[in-house]
Hints:
The complex is a heterodimer of chains A (243) and B (386).
Chain A: H1 9-12, E1 21-25, H2 29-41, E2 45-49, H3 52-61, E3 66-70, H4 78-88, E4 93-97, H5 103-110, E5 115-118, H6 123-134, E6 147-149, E7 152-155, E8 160-163, E9 166-168, H7 172-183, H8 191-199, H9 207-221, E10 231-234, E11 238-241
Chain B: H1 14-23, H2 30-63, H3 65-68, H4 72-123, H5 137-186, H6 194-224, E1 232-236, H7 237-246, E2 254-257, E3 265-269, H8 270-287, E4 293-298, E5 305-311, H9 333-338, H10 347-357, E6 361-366, E7 374-381
Parallel strand pairs in B: 2-4
Antiparallel strand pairs in B: 1-3, 4-5, 5-7, 6-7
Helix pairs in contact in B: 2-4, 5-6, 6-10, 7-8, 8-10
Amino acid sequence: MPCASIPTLDEALPWGLVGTRVLTVEDDERIRASVRLALEDEGWTVDEAATGEDAVQTFAANPADVVLIDIMLPGIDGFELCRRIRAKSSVPIVMVTARSDTHDVVAGLEAGADDYLTKPFAPKELSARIRALLRRIRPSDHAHSTLSFGDLVIIPEEGRVTLRGEEILVTKTEFKLLCVLAENPSGVFSREQLLEKVWDYDYFGDGRLVDVHIRRLRMKIEADPANPRHVVTVRGLGYRLQS
Amino acid sequence: MTSPIRPERSFLGDRARAFFRRRRPRRMGVRSRILATFVIGSLLLSGVLFFLTFTLTRSNLREREGELGLSDQLISETLGSVRASLILATVITVLVGLMLGIVSSERVVRPLAGAADAARAIADGRLDTRLEPTDDPDLNALTESFNDMVARLQERVERDARFASDVSHELRSPLMTLAASVEVMVSRRDELPERGQAALDLLVADVARFSGLVEDLLEISRYDAGAVRLTRDDLRVGEFVEQAVRASTLPRSAIHVDTRCSEATISGDRRRLARVVANLIDNARTHGDGTASVHVTPADDSGAHVWIAVEDSGEGVPTADAERIFERFSRGVGASKRGISEGAGLGLALVREHVRLHGGRVWVEPRHDAQTGARFVVELPCEALN
Lengths: 243, 386
């Protein structure tokens, strides 16, 4: 699996993603088939599931590198499926929503999705999103094998985070977010900068991605998520990581 | 309140009717009518009482004048005091009548004012407005039928809005399949024979257009359903316009940002305002000579508003069409000559909706620099304009 090693950004594109396994969860047979064709053109392996239950089984049998989930599913819905997969794995999840300005997006991100797309999307957009999620952050300073922020320690080479010596389970995207914030310990990162560095979005990316991920991160690494000590908000400017 | 004309039912001649109509006060409200009824009623009542009491007292006194040996002076004094007290009683009665009239007319009019407010609210789009139920059996009939009417209206409006939205939603799944399949074919374009390639190119262009149309329809049906929620950010005008133009179909358009605006911020929905700029540029591209220039200037010296203007070098928009082109599926005058290959006809309508929701306005005018062409101006509220 390409993701087991630690490829830098340059290595990851495009050869590093050959052999990537994508699980598509979508109840519409035709959409599933056409998305499959498009993703296979990228050189990726595609697993399919028509229902949430199917998806859980398929994922357990063949863990994918990325999961694509349509929120409107018969049986267990996309949100619940997100939570179930998230409970077991830190795999990047892209969800597909019907609308971008409803609560669906925030609810999906809070259920554990890393990014979202609005129907109808072009397969090119989807593959760009998948690439962005699978891309690894190259630590800015290779001399540091660990980055310490008080009781919070980030080990970029191993993709691990510890809090007071105990390992914290973070998703790949949350980890990327932490690494970007750690790049410049005293600096403030705006939402736009984080969107670009973590998700590879341009100026028109959705700021809610950053906000929800920061919220999720705080739940994991802050003693009191309402009064964060590590990931602090700098009003009007953005976010900063501190000890 | 204007009364309906009922020519057949009047027994008066045309001229007499005209005479009375002319003499009648033009606008006599319900309130004034009730008030007048009370005042006239109390006047009549006290007048009758006055007349009866006074004449009875006087004839009584005259009859028994000799019998009791009353002097003329005593009689006239007695009658004088009786008259005075009767006048006082009349005045009091009329005043009480006036007050009662005011109170009861208020009571009658209050529910009407409530109904008028409710009707206004409904016209403004708040379809969930209802009249408070009362315990007054006379008013209850009105309240109930009013609420019933609004409920049906709401149902109807929502059904229409839902229909457009449902249709567009249903179109999205096949569209998704089309878009994905077309893309797979595009990556194999070289393997196709020439005629196949030509057909594929047509397919690609129209799948994109279809997709844009469905997206626009969905967005506009959201406005109809009142379901649009803005995701607001503080956007720096200069930076935002630049980014929006770069993402549009004419990314190399000239942008002129007035130095006074460079630091100004708009509190706006990034994606929707970008659509505003993109749609105006699309409009300039299809209706002009394929170029557009964008100007950002302060609206006036107060610094509370900023203008984002998109200019083209087309034929301009005649004043008569200046309003109409912002309507749905209305195509500008120039478009009919050029055929209808471009645009879904919802672009400018969406511009207007987006801008309106941001508390701004949009209009079209001739260019200021004596050249032919249209100038579309978007006025938006902003902060910190220097």
